[in-house]
UniProtKB/TrEMBL annotation:
Belongs to the glycosyl hydrolase 3 family. InterPro entries: Cellulose_Degrad_GH3, Fn3-like, GH, Glyco_hydro_3_C, Glyco_hydro_3_C_sf, Glyco_hydro_3_N, Glyco_hydro_3_N_sf, Ig-like_fold. Keywords: Glycosidase, Hydrolase, Signal. Residues 1-18 form the signal peptide. Its EC number is 3.2.1.21. The lineage of its organism: Bacteria, Pseudomonadati, Bacteroidota, Flavobacteriia, Flavobacteriales. It comes from Mesonia mobilis. Pfam families: Fn3-like, Glyco_hydro_3, Glyco_hydro_3_C. One of its GO terms (molecular function) is hydrolase activity. Gene3D superfamilies: Glycoside hydrolase family 3 C-terminal domain, Glycoside hydrolase, family 3, N-terminal domain, Immunoglobulins. It is an enzyme of class 3 (hydrolase). The keyword Hydrolase applies. SUPFAM superfamilies: (Trans)glycosidases, Beta-D-glucan exohydrolase, C-terminal domain. This is beta-glucosidase.
């Protein structure tokens, strides 16, 4: 992709021959006022055509995530020179961004700098774990650090803005983009969204080491029916507010500079044209003053949605709805001016959008120096630095979840003298990079095999067999994967190796391109011939440690019944293999906890822990209650679950009082002790249930967590403060309320194994 982008910009050069983002920025009210004055003074000089230009975003290459506008390179070049483009995406590197910026700065009338955006989802050149994986660390400081490192690499490449973090709650393992988010829980999503926004933006957007973040996709995209990407979303207003919006609201409050709207419709209204979401809630209700970019072509997609006959009608709907910038859709470019001239919209509507866009450009410092992010020496030292590799390793280790460890087969014992590393992903140096991999070099990750070789004691024999290929052919963002393997010729070698080794490390799961945009599946099991290979290996050696690589929750029912140990390793980025090896050999004690429920079979999806009671929750009846007749209804591995090499013992919950009122708060405390003989970390989780409310409420909801570190024998007391706000919800009268009455409070190490106590709010 990089090649295309450079080609476009260099090609262009040749033919020339030539929001108050207040809480995150350290700006004083006076500085903010100054920015507002500058914005107004620029706006006052702008023609209608130039205003529309600021609302247009062009792609630097073609067909990256959807059909492009069809605007030719020649026309793009002319518009850039005339100052009729506000932003470009997918233009990366100091060389390319400087060139594109120069075209605008040296030729346009008002010299308004471009803002360059890019999908930096879990790293720029150094890859960190995919966002779902990193969420399993439940480590907000870590999430902030990896976002900050990604921001430094991005900024060092001349790019000002990332289209991240994605904060779409998803409860559906079939949805390919579940990998890009933080899982199924609103509270955890909100915490991590804020951490990532802080990491990207730092305390000063104008620093050359920070970039603007983007809260996406606003809203409901992760609730696509049947988990099919881009599909219809049908949710009620309570679900919207209580489940989907909390991370967005938290990001807005944290000063995220931009939002991106979403491809989907909700209850008949495409998010791109939703003035309820974009104007009533975000811009007015939450008083957020950044700008909203559409998703790729989502404005023009209102034509196939069937609510606009042509681009002009689509532009009208979108601009009225509150979308400020058109990402590679061509609708604003072709229609906004005439819509104003025909009095269909007033120019002040555009002024509001342009003001928002200019504000972010001022906050980034681009008016002071449009080339301030163009520093080759910083680019050279920052990208893929040793420091970033160390952080990638730390993040990767902390994201690993130990799902099963029968007879303490892990960490690998000294008695093991030979290890067979088997599986289609065992020596895959590419899949750990994930699907959204920005500028990562293909095949640059440390594979599991390499990691095992790096960390195994010298006297241990390491052998490798691929067994079977998972995918064949080219791997790329825009090409479907070929996963229909029929070639079993590698089976024999793998089986023989398993037979003659003390231990098997079996690396299976998903190719990097099985998750991501447009990658929904109806099967969340092991595709290709993996099931067969797994069964054959299990027959000849019972000592199998399964290493799972994947971007979605998978059906592990068979594996759980047949393998003594399972490590969930997601797609961990550049240092994947080293991180896995540190866990295998006991150099790192795993502490990750699942941010999503893992099903027993795909038929349970969507599956989530914070479900409603229903009117028939109990098995009092033989048949007529809410369950399945062919499967349990609960998760195989629940939300919040993850084992450690040590044991943690929870004391009794202590409440500071049993009743409290609006002006008060109560504290729930619990002592946690490391009773094993290895130091370890535990995520102590607080859940609450509102027993009677004006609308039906979940059977429990995560309301707090703390990750603690304990030496063997050490204890710590963890305390959570509960106040009326923590208990509030968007209720029956469409307002945030806290109902008086009884609540259950639970504390434990996952969403199922919990202690319980009751309190009352008066
Ligand atoms: C479409 C995706 O939905 C969005 O997340 C991404 O930022 C844009 N394409 C730009 O690549």
């Amino acid at each position: 992709m990089k090649k295309n982008i450079i080609l476009f910009v260099v090609g262009v050069a040749l033919s020339l021959n030539a929001c108050k983002v207040s809480s995150q920025s350290k700006k004083t009210p006076q500085q903010e006022k100054n920015i507002e004055q500058k914005v107004d003074s620029v706006l006052a000089l702008m023609t209608l055509e130039e205003k529309v230009g600021q609302m247009v975003q062009y792609n630097g290459s073609w067909d990256v995530t959807g059909p492009a506008t069809g605007t030719t390179n020649e026309k793009k070049l002319q518009r850039l020179k005339n100052g009729l483009v506000g932003s470009m995406l997918n233009v990366v590197s100091v060389e390319s961004t400087r060139e594109a910026q120069r075209l605008t700065m040296e030729n346009s009338r008002l010299k308004i700098p471009l803002i360059f955006g890019y999908d930096v989802i879990h790293g720029y050149k150094t890859m960190f774990p995919v966002p779902l994986g990193e969420t399993a660390s439940w480590d907000m400081i870590l999430a902030e650090k990896t976002a900050a490192a990604a921001a430094r690499e991005t900024a060092a490449s001349g790019v000002h803005w990332t289209f991240a973090p994605m904060m779409d709650i998803s409860r559906d393992a079939r949805w390919g983009r579940i990998m890009e988010g933080a899982g199924e829980d609103p509270f955890l999503n909100a915490e991590i969204a804020v951490a990532r926004v802080k990491g990207f933006q730092g305390s000063d957007l104008a620093s050359e080491k920070t970039i603007a973040a983007c809260a996406k996709h606003f809203a409901g995209y992760g609730f696509a029916e049947a988990g099919r990407d881009y599909n219809t979303v049908n949710i009620g207003v309570h679900e919207l507010h209580n489940t989907i919006l909390p991370p967005f609201k938290a990001a807005a409050k944290a000063g995220v500079a931009t939002f991106m709207n979403s491809f989907n419709e909700i209850d008949g209204v495409p998010a791109t044209s939703s003035s309820y979401l974009q104007r009533e809630l975000l811009k007015d209700g939450w008083a957020w003053d950044g700008f909203i970019v559409s998703d790729w072509g989502s404005i023009s997609e209102m034509i196939p949605h069937g609510i606009a006959r042509n681009k002009k009608e689509a532009a009208l709907l979108a601009v009225k709805g509150g979308s400020d910038m058109d990402m590679e859709g061509g609708a604003y470019e072709s229609s906004l001016e005439s819509l104003v001239e025909e009095d269909k919209i007033s120019e002040t509507l555009l002024d509001d959008s342009v003001r928002r866009i200019l504000r972010v450009k001022f906050q980034l410092g681009l008016f002071d120096d449009p080339y301030k992010y163009c520093d080759e020496s910083f680019e050279e030292t920052e990208l893929y630095s040793e420091e970033n590799q160390d952080l990638a390793l730390e993040a990767a280790k902390k994201s690993i979840v130990l799902l099963k460890n029968e007879n303490e087969i892990l960490p690998i014992k000294n008695s093991v003298k030979s290890i067979a590393v088997i599986g289609p992903l065992a020596d895959d140096k590419d899949s750990p990079l994930g699907n959204w991999r920005a500028q990562a070099e293909a095949n640059s990750a440390v594979s599991v095999l390499e990691g095992v070789k790096n960390y195994a004691p010298k006297n241990v024999q390491i052998n490798y067999a691929e067994g079977v290929k998972l995918s064949t052919g080219e791997r790329s963002f825009l090409k479907p994967l070929s996963l229909n393997q029929t070639d079993k010729s590698g089976f024999e070698q793998a089986i023989n190796l398993a037979k003659t080794s003390d231990l098997v490390v079996l690396v299976v799961g998903e190719d990097a391109y099985q998750t991501g945009e447009g990658r929904s599946q109806t099967d969340v099991g092991f595709l290709g011939l993996q099931d067969e290979l797994m069964a054959e290996i299990q027959k000849v050696n019972p000592n199998v440690v399964m290493i799972l690589m994947n971007g979605r929750p998978m059906d592990l029912t068979w594996s759980d019944e047949n393998f003594p140990a399972i490590l969930e390793t997601w797609l961990l980025g550049s240092q994947h293999g080293n991180a896995v090896a540190e866990v295998l050999f006991g150099k790192h004690n795993p502490s990750g906890k699942l941010p999503v429920s893992f099903p027993r079979n795909v038929g349970q999806e969507p599956l989530y822990y914070n479900q409603k009671s229903t009117g028939r929750p109990n098995a009092n009846a033989e048949v007529t209650y809410s369950h399945y007749t062919d499967s349990d209804r609960d998760a195989l591995f629940p939300f919040g679950f993850g084992l450690s090499y040590t044991d943690f013992e929870y004391g009794k919950i202590q409440l500071s009082k049993n009743k409290f009122s609006a002006s008060e708060e109560i504290t729930a405390s619990i002592e946690v002790k490391n009773t094993g003989d290895m130091a370890g970390e535990e995520v102590v989780q607080l859940y609450i249930r509102d027993l009677f409310a004006s609308i039906t409420r979940p059977i429990k909801e995560l309301k707090g967590f703390e990750k603690i570190s304990l030496q063997p024998g050490e204890s710590k007391t963890v305390s959570f403060t509960i106040d009326a706000e923590l208990l509030s919800y968007f209720g029956g009268d469409k307002k945030w309320v806290t109902d008086p009455g009884k609540f259950q409070l639970f504390i434990g190490g996952n969403s199922v194994d919990l202690q319980q106590i009751e309190f009352e709010y008066e």
